[in-house]
Amino acid sequence: MTDTTPRLALPELSAAQAQKHVTVNESLVKLDALVDLHILGLYTTTPPASPSDGDAYVTGGSSGGAWSGYDGKIAYCIDGSWRFYTPFRGLRAYCAADYKFYLYNGSAWEAEKVSGRTVTLGGDLSFAGALAQTGAYSWSLGIPGAYNYTMPAVSGTLAALNLAQTWTAAQTVSSSIFLAVDPLYPSHVGIGTTTPGAELPGDKVLEVLSAGTTRIEAYSTGRFSCFNFGSGVGAQHTTGFVVVDDTDNVIWVGSGTNTPLTFGSYATARFQITAAGHFIPYLSATYNIGDASHAVNNMWLQNAATVVSDAAHKTEIRHWQASTDTTAMTADTATASWTAAELAVGKSLARLVAMFKMKAAVAEKGSDKARIHAGWIAQEVIAAFAAQGLDALAYGCVGFDHATKTVTKTRTVKKQKTEAKTKTEAVEKITVTDGVAVVITEPTTTNYDDPVFETLAVKDADGNIIFGRTYQNPVMEDVTETYTEQEPDYEDDGVTQKHTYSVRMGELTCFVIAAQDARIAALEAKAT
Which helix (H) or strand (E) holds 362? Predict the structure, then answer.
């Protein structure tokens, strides 16, 4: 037999004990402290400067001052000093700091879980309906449906309901707005529905407003899923939008107004699709399609390519033979003709037209199926210019570009850790048999990666743990990923960078035409 009670450890009187009032008073003080326990703070580490008798706290870790060495105890003030009691499993306390009841689970204090028809939080907002508290700051609807939210008689803005009113008495607002998460499938979220998998009535499934203006609208109409971006409010597709047509596998990106769709990079506009559907560069004569290392394979054109050839864009104009007809000359036309060396290059080019097959085509199709092409070899063209003492690269008919190559590399990056999980859900399908549509439900299993989080305690500015507050911190890990980038392509010596020559067929043809015309003119002169 012990000399204390088994539950509250109250001291018992002994037979023939002297000064019995001391033991009785000690028991009464402990009863006063623990029965209907009322604390002013939970996990507090610093004693108040001027406590009053009857004040009680639950001390936190590394408590200081008069509480030093009494971490996790119930500190009770009596006669200006502190007494400390050890909590026991099942002890219940009301905390005046956050208007909550807590239960001691044997190692920590947990906020009580409350369920019922009406729950009041701090006397500020009451919910009439089936609510259940699932955590210190989490609440879920026990029964789907419409609920009444009762606001107190205050003046201000209730942002959650988008109301800005002054009430002289408590008011009740009925709402059927929901944000529901399926606990079995966290990826299923229902907005405005009682069931996460259900559909909203009407075509608009989401509207995000900022300062009274619609910023994002989401629609679901038939086979379309649409996001509207912009300041317009109303019918879909009136402003910027992204539409996924899952029937024709088409993604529409654009605007419903008479404005172009602009593509950019590095915060700079590059190309546009006009309202009429034309693909144009944002700046004239600035951007290319393809480059020396990324050539476009083929182009199909309904009409011949159009090249800007206005005299206003050209200067130092020379014809192969100086014109004597001044009326046909432009302001920039020089009287000088082509040089003899340039005409000689044209004669050489006529003899350098070659037949060839492309190596890529031979590798893909085989030599017997690869087609034969006609044209010039860039190195031979350069040699023809050099034979006449001319630099081919000074003329626009030959191009030179350093070659690059696409290199695959790896790098280590921080990414959130995931766990491979599987979920099975019922999927409805409709089959038609003998003219009757029958709904059947089949289980469908899906594999997915679930992000991993760790639960961390939350501390205040003084480093004290705030009980009931936790933070879901993403668990990060080092992940090796691959990426590609362009690098210079070198010869086998590792020093000399490879290069690619190109020719403009039209300009080389002009060289040949001028040279042939000069030869014909010379023959005609001899004939006369």
Answer: helix 359-365
